[in-house]
Amino acid sequence: MSSISAADVKRLREATSAGMMECKKALEETGGDFDKAVEALRISGAAKAAKRGAERTTSNGIVSSHGNALIELLCETDFVAKSEDFLTLANQLSAAADANQVADSQALLACELSSGETAESAISHIAGVIGEKVELGRVSVLEAPVALYLHKRASDLPPQVGVLVAYQGDEAAARGIAMQIAAMRPLFLSRADVPEETVENERRIAAETAKEEGKPEAAMPKIVEGRVNGYYKDVVLLEQPSVTDNKKSVSQVLADAGTTITGFARFEPGQ
């Protein structure tokens, strides 16, 4: 049997994103033949990915945008998230979402990528190669024009927070709001978008909390409304304090810029 060097293992790991011990074993089993080792890892990796799929979580991954589409591609580890093949696949997926204008993950899985295979097949293929669970996460397509902001959580990783904003007006102002969304994580664009049952639940919690605190009964309505308004400031984009001018709300900043936000999407793997 030929001697397996650390350099051989490193090269195979970089090519397949498989684990170090798996790469060493594959090389030993194939007598050091690199191409056969890659093939062996693909075969064993596909079986492992299928077997582990149900119990493993895809809490890592990256975001990718093309045109007016934003997608999230999920995996288990940041080692895979920063691999070239994973990044290429994410870019192909966002390009397909844009080309086909599909805002649904199931619909995107059926689309053909630039490689000629379907998105579902490409994801299955890469999962088999690396032996790690890979999933298509959320997909969004907004009406153009859009502003994009991608944020890196670590300098050695691709963007893992993506915000897409549909707007009318000033592009620079819209991109500033995309950065606001990345940092402050609003759930809704306006009060009208908050489900009534959510608002009623917040009122109930505010009333029960005030009662536990021994607040006067006569002051209850004002206290409850004040706390519900505080909830709106946390989760509604237009009512949040601006990160660039905390004396103004986002809606005031937008009004000053003559800009309207018509929709947004914020994706962050694991969130």
Can you tell me about this structure?
By secondary structure, the chain is an alpha+beta fold. Among the domains are: 6-52, Ubiquitin-associated (UBA) domain (Helicase, Ruva Protein, domain 3), CATH 1.10.8; 55-141, Tetrahydropterin Synthase, Chain A, CATH 3.30.479.20. Helices cover 49% and strands 16% of the residues. It contains 11 helices and 6 strands. It has a 3-stranded antiparallel β-sheet. Strands 4-5-6 form a 3-stranded antiparallel β-sheet. Strand 1 and strand 2 (69-75) form a beta hairpin. Helix 1 packs across helix 3. The mean pLDDT is 90.
- Give Rg in angstroms: 24 Å
Poorly predicted regions are none
- How many alpha or pi helices? 11
Class per helix and strand makeup: alpha+beta
Strand order of the largest sheet: 1-2-3
Helicity range: 40-55%
What would a concise description of this structure say?
This protein has 271 residues and is an alpha+beta fold. Helix content is 49%, strand content 16%. A 3-stranded antiparallel beta sheet has the order 1-2-3.
Topology at a glance:
Layout: H1 6-16, H2 20-29, H3 34-52, E1 60-66, E2 69-75, H4 78-81, H5 84-100, H6 105-109, H7 119-130, E3 135-141, E4 146-151, E5 161-168, H8 171-184, H9 196-212, H10 220-235, H11 250-256, E6 260-267
Antiparallel strand pairs: 1-2, 2-3, 4-5, 5-6
